[in-house]
Specification:
There is one protein chain. With 221 residues, this protein is an alpha/beta fold. The chain has a single domain, classed as Rossmann fold (3-Layer(aba) Sandwich). Helices cover 29% and strands 26% of the residues. A nine-stranded mixed sheet has the order 3-4-5-2-1-6-7-9-8, sandwiched between helices. Strand 4 and strand 5 form a beta hairpin. The chain is globular and about 45 Å long. The N and C termini lie far apart (34 Å).
């Protein structure tokens, strides 16, 4: 998916992927991740998700990356915050309190920056990418996270032929294929949610589930 696709979605207000509440699977399973108190949590393709504010209230520092400048501005506006800004090779950094949001490309983040993260929370990034980009994403982005890193990954599963993504279906088998070399993967929960997603039903999707996985770097044990 090209950057302009996502920027246009935000400009046109076509952000059905944005939730007006904290993600239930985050509420239910974050403690199982074991992220250290006060640790820094990386949130790729963060948009303006309320999940970041929830993580901050839990005492974490948040490092988000987002292609859309509009999304970053809306997050801070809706939180009543006025961040400081500066430019680096990674993009435009917006910083205030526990938040550092980078308006830029997740693939352009350098290892020095991602090495400061104690955990990763991925609800919207892996499922936003088509299959031919997901392996590169895990290699180039997850691969820069430090040895002690832990994570919570949330995916969707549905018959891919019934709907054109994004969001895309990512099966449990693919999650293991993508991560097993560097990460221990443990499924924490799987829920059928088709009755909660009328948009999917309207597109003819006949089955829809969401799954939460705990990730732990193998060489960080």
């Amino acid at each position: 998916m090209k950057a302009e696709f996502w920027k246009q979605r935000w400009q046109e207000g076509r952000i059905g992927f944005h939730q007006d509440r904290v993600t239930p699977l985050l509420l239910d399973h974050w403690d199982a991740v074991g992220a250290p108190a006060g640790g820094r949590v990386f949130v790729p393709l963060c948009g303006k998700t309320l999940d970041m504010a929830w993580l901050a209230r839990r005492g974490h520092r948040v490092l988000g990356v987002e292609l859309s400048e509009l999304a970053v501005h809306q997050f801070f506006d809706e939180q009543g915050l006025v961040p400081q800004c500066h430019e680096t090779t990674c993009g435009t950094h917006y910083i205030i309190g526990p938040y550092e949001l980078i308006q830029g490309d997740a693939f352009a983040l350098d290892a020095a920056l991602l090495s400061t993260c104690d955990a990763v929370y991925d609800r919207a990034a892996l499922i936003a990418l088509p299959q031919d980009m997901r392996s590169r994403y895990v290699h180039d982005v997850y691969g820069k996270l430090p040895p002690h890193c832990r994570g919570l990954l949330i995916t969707l599963e549905y018959p891919q032929h019934e709907k054109q993504g994004p969001p895309f279906a990512v099966t449990e088998r693919e999650v293991h294929t993508l991560h097993d070399r560097e990460w221990n993967v443990e499924r924490l929960a799987k829920h059928d949610i088709l009755d909660q997603q009328p948009g999917f039903v309207a597109e003819g999707v006949t089955a829809l589930s969401t799954t939460a996985y705990r990730l732990t770097r193998k060489h960080g044990e």
